[in-house]
Amino acid sequence: MKPVSSSSALHPRNLHREGYDFALLVQAHPALAPYVRPNAYGDDSIDFAHPQAVKTLNQALLKQYYGVAVWDIPKHYLCPPIPGRADYVHYLADLLAESGHAQSVRLLDIGTGANLVYPLIAAQAYGWQCLGVDIDAKALRNAQQLIEANGLQSKISVRQQPNAAAIFKGVILPGEQWTLTMCNPPFHASAAEAQAGTQRKWRGLGKRPPQALNFGGQANELVYEGGEAAFLTTMIHESRYFAQQCVWFTTLVSKASNLPLVMRELKKARAVRVKMVEMAQGQKQSRFVAWTFQTITMQKSPSSVA
C-alpha cells in the first residue's frame, strides 16, 4: 500500500498534508482494512460515498495522529473530514501566535456536534482547554462519552445551549474568559435546500443520490432559519455583548457570497480588528473570519486574556 496524492494546499503543520498512508492507518486501526481498495489511478483509497468506510477512516486518523483511541458517532450525525477540520485549528494557532496569545488557550467550539472533532484535535495537538457547545442533548451525550473513553476530562468539557435561537448567550457565563471561539455554521436555510446539497454531494462522488435526506448531519447541524447569512449576522451581533470576555471570535464562512455581509456587519459592530484567512483542501476552497473588540493594549492585559 502507498499514500494517495499529496494535499499540498493544506496548512504546513497539517499531519495529513501528504495524503493518507493507508498502510500506516490499517496498522493503527485494522478495522479499516476491508474498506481499502485501489482507485481508478491504482492508489489505495476508500469509497468516500460509503458512510461506514468514511467513519472508519476517521477512527484510524484520530487514533494514529491524535491519540484518540475511541471515536464514534450516532447514525446520521455529521461525519467530518479530518484534514479540513485540522486546518482550521492550525490556522487558529497561527492567529494566536501572531497576536501573542499562544499560551494557556481556552477554546469555545460553537456547534461541536456528536463528533467533537475540533476540541479533540485542538486539545491533542496544542494542549488547549476546550469547551464544546451544542443545542442537541443526544450529540452532547455522545461527545461526553468520547471525552471519558479517551480520558480527556481535564482538557475537554461540553455544555448545552438552552436557547436554539442564541449562539453565545447562555453558554458564555458571567466572569468566564475565553481566548477564542470557533464555529462551522449550518449553511442551509431549509430542509429542502439541505436535500439539494445532499444530492449534489452524491452526484459529485459519481453515485446515484439516495432518497434519504442525510448525506451526514442532523437538521440542526445543517439548517438554520435564514441560512448561513442569518446565523453569521446573529453571531456577530451577540459577540458584542462578550467583547471583554473573549479575545478572538472566529467562524468558517462556507459561502464566499456571504463575505461582504460579514464585513458590513463587523463594521457596524465596531470590531477593532478583522482578519480573513483562506484555506484549501484539494479543489475545495474555504475560509474563516476572525474579529476582536479588544485593542492590542487590552489584549496584553492579564485581566482580559484567558
From TrEMBL:
Family, per entry: Belongs to the methyltransferase superfamily. METTL16/RlmF family.
Protein purpose: Specifically methylates the adenine in position 1618 of 23S rRNA.
Entry's EC annotation: 2.1.1.181
Catalysed reactions, semicolon-separated: adenosine(1618) in 23S rRNA + S-adenosyl-L-methionine = N(6)-methyladenosine(1618) in 23S rRNA + S-adenosyl-L-homocysteine + H(+)
Keyword match Cytoplasm: yes
Protein name, as recorded: Ribosomal RNA large subunit methyltransferase F
One Gene Ontology term of the molecular function aspect: 23S rRNA (adenine(1618)-N(6))-methyltransferase activity
Record's keyword terms, sorted: Cytoplasm, Methyltransferase, rRNA processing, S-adenosyl-L-methionine, Transferase
Source taxonomy: Bacteria, Pseudomonadati, Pseudomonadota, Betaproteobacteria, Nitrosomonadales
Gene3D superfamilies xrefs: Vaccinia Virus protein VP39
Cross-referenced Pfam families: Methyltransf_10
Subcellular location: Cytoplasm
InterPro entries noted in UniProt: METTL16/RlmF, rRNA_lsu_MeTfrase_F, SAM-dependent_MTases_sf
